[in-house]
Amino acid sequence: MPVNPMNRREFVKKSAVTGAAVTVAGAVAATPAQAQTADHKPEKAPRTWSFSILGTTDLHSHVFDWDYYTDAAYKDSKGNSVGVARVATLIKQQRAAKGEKHVLLVDAGDIIQGTSLAYYYARVDPIVAAKGRRAPVHPMAVAMNHMRYDAAALGNHEFNYGIETLRKFEKQCDFPLLGANALDAKTLRPAFQPYTVKRICVPGAPDIKVGILGLTNPGIALWDKDNVSGKMAFTGLVEQAKKYVPRMRALGCDVVFLTDHSGLDGSSSYGSELPYIENASNLVAQQVPGIDAILVGHTHVEVSSYTVKNEETGKDVVLSEPYCWGMRLTVFDFELELHHGQWKVTSTKAQTLNSNTVEEDPEITKLLKADHDLVVKYVNTPVGTCTADLSAAEACWKDVPVMDFIHQVQMATVASGLSTADAALPLISVAAPFSRTADIPAGHVTIRDVAGLYIYDNTLYGKKLTGAQLKDYLEYAAKYYHQFASGTKVDTATLTNANNFWDYMYDTAAGVEYDIDIAQAEGSRIKNLTYKGVAVADDQVFVVAVNNYRANGGSGYPHIAAADIAYSSTNEIRQLMIDYVTSKGTLDPADFAVTNWKLTQDGTPVFTAS
């Protein structure tokens, strides 16, 4: 693909800062109403002051209000809009209302992965330049630099394309990427800047020092093991906050603000695979004294304002998570009073603003429309045809052909790379229904049709499980369903997502036959597990085609993370699917569709065959 032709690639470059360095921002002026001219100093220093921190998170390279998979404006049942172009308008409104220099802007991570635009600038026209070519600037760097972000936390998806791509993005940003618990594996020193300090200038009074500490998700060590193993280590959020918050206070920070790529319910999706909590922002607020507020990310929910009392000081800490994809903007408002020459926070409030209330910022549109148009053209590239419509609408409770397409590609790819000894073992596949709206239409098939089915940049593994371990694996998956007693009508609206087990966490299997009896209690639901008509023996060994996220412990499935590796590849499964259609020319479900699992209630099928 051609190098992006945009003529807006000029930026003031800053050197990458690593280790425990601190960036101190230039003085920030007062609001116009409070500002004093150089020759008219205030008669009396102000005793109170206010400022705001605006927060985004989990933008996932959503620039415009556009869905690349449907080739249309984004649409959901709640009327949300997406994209930083709309958020930019909200930010302009806040700066205009409160004073340009009374507003800081921070992000909580997951910036450079998540849309076809993100993939395009990581793999098709990558920001990491090959020899002899000029690399583009990442559109998210362009947008966020223009919006004048002050800092961003590292998200776990920042590592999906490898450390080299992340470092290149870091160099393209005019603001620091913060990660106090992202350490160099050899030295155990910070591999990224832990924190930054910004100054709010108060005429006639001391500057207000605002310390911003960034923390990322320990799960990176599992989820992106292939990219970070031996290079980086990730410690707990609480542990590192206890180290750096006192340090920031010792530097004279009047306000300590955290940006955490970590949810606030104290849960972990990886079970006991790691000693550190995945969603630990509430624990940080509770256990680490000296924090005023936390911008929360990672879990893709809206929490407008949530208060946690610190167990040591009794002080309330305000947390807020502004949903994802630019649907919301968090506004933290701080009130301070000057006591004996030092500023003290007297009030902290948070709220979220909805980006569907404003139009896209025309300046962002002007900067990035050419990038967007290139990606639209790319995703609409034809790759073949399909003999029937393949919908994922019922994939969460029925064995549908479109899921068998994923299984077919995974098994065929793993089979081609097995050793002679492992090739003699039975081969199966596990995969999750990532999108209920995915649909590969009958007729012409484009890149976006296939990409909409497999929305993550996962790579492929082959791992060995015994029959007993496979049954445990499938039992774990089956907790996705709520229990429905025999004879009870099953409503698909309430059938799934039990135990906060979401669609992307739920694996079905191909290559074996089995029933899931939802009338039974969790742990006793897998029935009639067979391979080629014969009951699976506990000691029978299988090669399981599985994505890297699951293979490395994602979602906490038993046995798989520790299982022996029979195959691994750096090729994205999505691209393997696109290549399959391209090579075949025609996608025909007759080549791969097999109904090998079903839901039952005490042995009676819940749904009739399609």
Automatic annotation (TrEMBL):
Needed cofactors, names only, are: a divalent metal cation
Record localization: Cell envelope
Question: Domain Calcineurin-like phosphoesterase, which positions?
Answer: 52-301
The biological process GO terms on file are: nucleotide catabolic process
Keyword entries, A-Z? Hydrolase, Metal-binding, Multifunctional enzyme, Nucleotide-binding, Signal
**Which stretch is the leader sequence?**
1-35
Q: Which InterPro entries match?
A: 5'-Nucleotdase_C, 5'-Nucleotdase_C_sf, 5'-Nucleotdase_CS, 5_nucleotidase/apyrase, Calcineurin-like_PHP, CpdB_N, Metallo-depent_PP-like, TAT_signal
5'-Nucleotidase C-terminal domain: which residues? Answer: 383-560
Q: Name one Pfam family in it.
A: 5_nucleotid_C
Per its record, the protein catalyses: a ribonucleoside 3'-phosphate + H2O = a ribonucleoside + phosphate; a nucleoside 2',3'-cyclic phosphate + H2O = a nucleoside 3'-phosphate + H(+)
Q: Give GO terms: molecular function aspect only.
A: 2',3'-cyclic-nucleotide 2'-phosphodiesterase activity; 3'-nucleotidase activity; metal ion binding; nucleotide binding
Q: Gene3D superfamilies, from UniProt?
A: 3.60.21.10, 5'-Nucleotidase, C-terminal domain (3.90.780.10)
Q: Name one GO cellular component term.
A: outer membrane-bounded periplasmic space
Tell me which SUPFAM superfamilies the record gives. Answer: 5'-nucleotidase (syn. UDP-sugar hydrolase), C-terminal domain (SSF55816), Metallo-dependent phosphatases (SSF56300)
Q: Which family does it belong to?
A: Belongs to the 5'-nucleotidase family.
NCBIfam families reported for this sequence: TAT_signal_seq
The protein here is known as: Multifunctional 2',3'-cyclic-nucleotide 2'-phosphodiesterase/5'-nucleotidase/3'-nucleotidase
Q: Which organism is it from?
A: Streptomyces olivochromogenes
